[in-house]
């Protein structure tokens, strides 16, 4: 059976999951129950017993004894990869080798070199490769661009964005350097990508970090964008604040504050204070993950990939530059082999 016939609009896209990570429920299982054309059919985990327990709890039909066995399953069209970032490059390529479409959690890989290697491999593949940067797909992103382009805020003087959460050091993989841990590569990914999306690529960067070993528990940076806007960002893994994210933009005619731009479905809002008064906009409360899964489905059926390898490479280059500016090593990555 050809890829085209299996993925005809009337047929569900059958998805296998590599890893029983916490994010799977929110990013894939719940959205798949709300998005037409997606069916989660199989799972594998490093510890098979964990996969079996997860499958039983979430009613996933098949459990495979290893990632490789899942990729060999001819009844799976696509895979979702929620593994630690240091393993992403390896298993993206293995999945493409196996003839599967790939939705890989952000960050795409754990460093720019690995991202470039994966992008090179993916360029020779006919299968969809999409980074699961879910915030991109929500209508809030388009709305922010509309406000900036309207001139309502005047000339943009500067911006700042942050993301933080109270994640204590311990067994959480975000504190494991070998697995690609670090605040910037995890929570900090969001404000950096948002600032780059709104104001363009970064040129000169400055950064400082509070560390625990080689892990950035908190990182603060100043970015100069190619269009001339200067922005600041902060990411924190060990924050006294509950999970929080925010964007602020200051212009000659007003200021815009955006609450929870990473997950606008969780009560996010846009507050604009300008020369003609102030107002508040409340974005669509539909989940970013629903929009993302629809985009993945549509890309498999012939649509465009908006968060692909090229965009991911640019983001990882910006992340590596900030780590280097803060005097920290870039994160390690698993090896990548060529496409068969």
List the helices and strands and how they pair.
Elements lengths: L2 H4 L6 E6 L4 H10 L5 E7 L3 H11 L3 E3 L2 H5 L6 E4 L6 H10 L3 E5 L6 H11 L6 E4 L6 H12 L5 E9 L24 H11 L2 E11 L2 E11 L4 E7 L7 E8 L2 E6 L9 E6 L2 E5 L6 H13 L8 H17 L15
Description of the structure:
With 340 residues, the chain is an alpha/beta fold. Helices cover 31% and strands 27% of the residues. The chain has helices at 3-6, 23-32, 48-58, 67-71, 88-97, 112-122, 139-150, 189-199, 288-300, 309-325; strands at residues 13-18, 38-44, 62-64, 78-81, 101-105, 129-132, 156-164, 202-212, 215-225, 230-236, 244-251, 254-259, 269-274, 277-281. The protein has an 8-stranded mixed sheet with strand order 8-9-10-7-11-12-13-14, with helices on one face. Strands 3-2-1-4-5-6 form a 6-stranded parallel sheet, with helices on both faces.
Strand content: 25-35%
Q: What is the CA-based Rg, rounded?
A: 20 Å
- Number of helical elements: 10
Q: Averaging pLDDT over every residue, what do you get? A: 94
**Quantity of strands, as a count:** 14
Q: Roughly how many Å apart are the termini?
A: 20 Å
Could you say which structural class the secondary elements and strand pairing correspond to?
Answer: alpha/beta
Major β-sheet strand ordering:
8-9-10-7-11-12-13-14
Contiguous uncertain segments of 5+ residues: none
The share of residues in helices is 25-40%
């Amino acid at each position: 059976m050809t890829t085209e016939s299996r993925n005809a609009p009337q047929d569900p896209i059958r998805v296998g999951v590599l890893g029983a990570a916490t994010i799977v429920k929110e990013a894939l299982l719940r959205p798949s129950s709300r998005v037409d054309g997606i069916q989660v059919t199989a799972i594998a985990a490093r510890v098979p017993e964990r996969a079996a327990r997860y499958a039983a709890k979430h009613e996933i039909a098949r459990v495979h004894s290893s990632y490789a066995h899942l990729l060999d399953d001819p009844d799976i069209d696509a895979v979702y990869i929620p593994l630690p970032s240091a393993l992403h490059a390896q298993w993206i390529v293995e999945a493409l080798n196996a003839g599967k479409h790939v939705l890989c959690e952000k960050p795409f890989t754990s460093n720019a070199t690995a991202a470039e290697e994966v992008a090179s491999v993916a360029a020779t593949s006919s299968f969809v490769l999409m980074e699961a940067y879910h915030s991109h797909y929500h209508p809030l992103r388009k709305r922010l661009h509309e406000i900036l382009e309207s001139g309502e805020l005047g000339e943009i003087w500067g911006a700042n964005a942050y993301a933080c959460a109270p994640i204590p050091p311990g067994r959480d993989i975000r504190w494991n350097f070998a697995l690609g841990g670090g605040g910037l590569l995890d929570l900090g990914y969001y404000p950096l990508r948002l600032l780059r999306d709104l104001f363009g690529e970064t040129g000169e960067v400055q950064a400082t970090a509070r560390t625990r070993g080689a892990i950035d528990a908190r990182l603060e940076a100043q970015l100069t964008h190619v269009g001339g806007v200067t922005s600041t960002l902060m990411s924190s893994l060990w924050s006294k604040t509950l999970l929080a994210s925010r964007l602020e933009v200051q212009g000659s005619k007003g200021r815009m504050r955006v609450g929870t731009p990473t997950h606008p479905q969780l009560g996010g809002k846009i507050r604009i204070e300008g020369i003609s008064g102030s107002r508040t906009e409340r974005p669509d409360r539909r989940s970013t993950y629903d929009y993302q899964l629809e985009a993945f489905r549509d890309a498999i059926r012939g649509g465009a990939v908006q968060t692909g390898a090229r965009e991911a490479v640019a983001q990882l280059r910006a992340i590596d530059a900030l780590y280097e500016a803060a005097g920290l090593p870039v994160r390690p990555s698993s090896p990548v082999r060529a496409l068969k």
